[in-house]
Amino acid sequence: MVKHDYNFWVLVQPSADVPGEWIAHCLEVDVVTQGTSINDAFKMAAEATTMVVCEDLAAGRNPLDRRAPDEFWAELWPVVNDGSRKSLREVAANSGSVRCVAAQLLMHATIVEMDPSTHKPRELPDGWDVPALWSKGRDSAVHA
Amino acid sequence: MVSALKAMGLTVDPAPGGGSHYRAVLDGKVYPIPAHNGTKTEIADVYIKGVCRCFSLDYAELKKKL
């Protein structure tokens, strides 16, 4: 069993071309998605990032190899350095005046070895009865 | 977006599979497609550029297919 802990930066901004939509960009894995509100955009980012991380790890790839180009990281640092720290509730309540929100997504991923005869994990991480995700027919599965 | 990506050679899951994203796949690499309004989800340009970066697709060619 191999464990990975990730801290991902996610930037959320209002869409420039789709009215009412918020764009979420997870920079470490260069995944872009969108939601109908700031909260929804962060939820979508968590789901999209989990999908990509699980798929990459199950395929033996390092998800961090997909890192976003430097130009997108350059958008993050002014927000982190010069922005004001607020709760998500405060930000969402004043979304009309928000230009950009940055937050970190914490992910704990565990790669478990699959038993090829049962298509089930050989062992499960502590505290889990059923993995959140596994892939039938593969040698390993990831849940996060 | 789903049809356009299929036309560019990607495989796309027929349904979001319990979440709010379709799974687009090319050469074993996966990228999520937002689907909170199903196939009618209006996709932002910055997303289109992101999926092009991931799969090294030509942006102009993908835009023509949308």
Poorly predicted ranges of chain B:
none
Structural class of chain B: alpha+beta
- Number of helical regions of chain A: 3
Average pLDDT value of chain B?
88
Number of helices of chain B: 3
Strand content of chain B: 15-25%
Q: Structural class of the helices, strands and pairings of chain A?
A: alpha+beta
- End-to-end distance of chain B, in Å? 6 Å
Provide mean pLDDT of chain A, rounded.
Answer: 84
Order of helices and strands of chain B: HEEEHH
| Helix content range of chain A | 25-40%
Number of strands of chain A: 6
Keyphrases for this structure?
heterodimer, A: alpha+beta, 28% helix, 31% strand, B: 66 residues, 3-stranded antiparallel β-sheet, 3 helices, globular
Write the layout of secondary structure elements.
The complex is a heterodimer of chains A (144) and B (66).
Chain A: E1 2-14, E2 22-26, E3 31-35, H1 38-58, H2 70-82, H3 88-93, E4 101-115, E5 120-121, E6 140-143
Antiparallel strand pairs in A: 1-2, 1-4, 2-3, 4-5, 4-6
Chain B: H1 2-7, E1 11-12, E2 21-26, E3 29-34, H2 45-55, H3 59-65
Antiparallel strand pairs in B: 1-2, 2-3
Could you describe the 3D structure shown?
- The complex is a heterodimer of chains A (144) and B (66).
- Chain A contains three helices and six strands, in the order βββαααβββ.
- By secondary structure, chain A is α+β, with helices and mostly antiparallel strands.
- The longest helix of chain A has 21 residues, at 38-58.
- Chain B has 66 residues and is an alpha+beta fold.
- Chain B has a three-stranded antiparallel β-sheet with strand order 1-2-3.
- The longest helix of chain B has 11 residues, at 45-55.
- The radius of gyration of chain B is 11 Å and the shape is globular.
